Amino acid sequence: MTLPDRGTPPTIAATFGQCGSFNPCTGNLQGTWFQTAGCLELSDPFGTFCPSGSVLASAIQGWWRLDFLGTTLVQTDGPMTSTFVSNFPQACLPGVTSCDQLGSNTTVPTTCEVASSGRSGCDCTTTNTRTVPTSTQTTWTDNGGGLITINASVPIQWQTCVLPGNPDVLIVTDSDGRGRQTYERR
């Protein structure tokens, strides 16, 4: 499928923390949308693996685009870099005798060193880089009231709102509510 030539979206830096409440609403999704802001909530980032672990710093930088063309949705993710600095307390590391062991057992570039600033265990920095844009084409269904279903191999539900006072701004949250993105129509 050939997409409309709208140029390259701006590179943005997503923020982390509490993204705030969101109320879905209706609106015209058709067209090309460039992401202009993003927020991710990192509550319980390590689950049962390491409930006392914490993210000390995080950053994601890249560009993202949505094209709603009839019932077709094309999601394009541009070049992106993500960096996370995490602390894994000693309680999460049974059998680990050196922080170097953690960095060598990952699929993305990770360096680990003995924790500092009074923390126990290991502080690890993970950096993941994607240099080539990727596009995914699926179909989507409007469920009404600002709820849409992305008909991927595993259907995903998004809450959306095209702002009533500004029909060129779209807010999207994913199905678990832990992320929110703002897009502008191009």
Walk me through the structure.
It is built from one helix and eleven strands. By secondary structure, it is an all-beta fold. The chain has one domain (12-185). Strands 1, 2, 3, 4, 5, 6, 7, 8, 9, 10 and 11 form an eleven-stranded mixed β-sheet that branches. The protein is elongated. The protein starts with 11 loop residues before the first strand and ends with a strand.
Which segments are poorly predicted (pLDDT under 50) over 5 or more consecutive residues?
none
Domain tally: 1
Order of helices and strands: EEEEHEEEEEEE
How would you characterize the largest beta sheet?
A: 11 strands, mixed
Strand content: over 45%
Shape descriptor reads elongated
Layout of helices and strands, plus pairs?
Blueprint lengths: L11 E5 L14 E10 L13 E16 L2 E17 L10 H5 L6 E5 L7 E9 L3 E11 L2 E4 L5 E7 L6 E5 L5 E7 L1
Parallel strand pairs: 1-2
Antiparallel strand pairs: 1-3, 2-3, 2-11, 3-4, 4-6, 4-7, 5-6, 7-8, 8-9, 9-10, 10-11
Compose a concise summary of this entry.
The protein has one helix at 99-103; strands at 12-16, 31-40, 54-69, 72-88, 110-114, 122-130, 134-144, 147-150, 156-162, 169-173, 179-185. By secondary structure, the chain is mainly beta. It has one domain.
Features:
single chain, mainly beta, 1 helix, 11-stranded mixed sheet, 186 residues
